[in-house]
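[agent] plan:
  1. take the single chain provided in the ticket
  2. run structure prediction with default settings
  3. attach structure tokens to the ticket
  4. add a short note for the reviewer (M.T.)
[agent] executing step 1
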Amino acid sequence: MFKGLDLATFWDDSEHALNEYVSPPPSDELIAEVQRELGHTLPAAYVAMMRIHNGGVPCRRCFPTQAPTSWAADHVAITGILGIGRDKSCSLCGALGSEFMVEAWGYPRIGIYFADCPSAGHDMIAMDYRACGPSGEPSIAHVDQENGYRITPLAPDFETFVRGLTHESVFED
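[agent] step 2 finished; step 3 output follows
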């Protein structure tokens, strides 16, 4: 997994990222607990990445889209990737995690919300399990609260999503 991708330079370990997102690598027990709590099997590529760096803020935070979103005509942006755990507010089972987005913000139950966006809750990135079921390999989708929770497909899987992240300068005029 992630062959040819330098995960050492993937993350921006700012003070904010370390305080809000980054947790110690997850144990097998924690991974199993989080999967039970969320009702879905986490993708192998996501788990592998989190074992190396458990959550954080990527250096490249934009993903190109084929359709316009509330963020931009040709891409979405993320703020960070939630890690496996519950100790950080920005972790899958943390105070601002996946279940919070469903219960407090009304996001549809399509899977696991794993990446937040600069809109502060008005759009999220999800592992979309609708086509594969709770144990399958989810696709990745943008869910846009500002547009009636419109779901825009982004990538067929987590690794493709990570590899497709680009720097914001690509989209500057």
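[agent] step 4 note for reviewer: The chain is about 25% helix and 20% strand.
[agent] ticket updated
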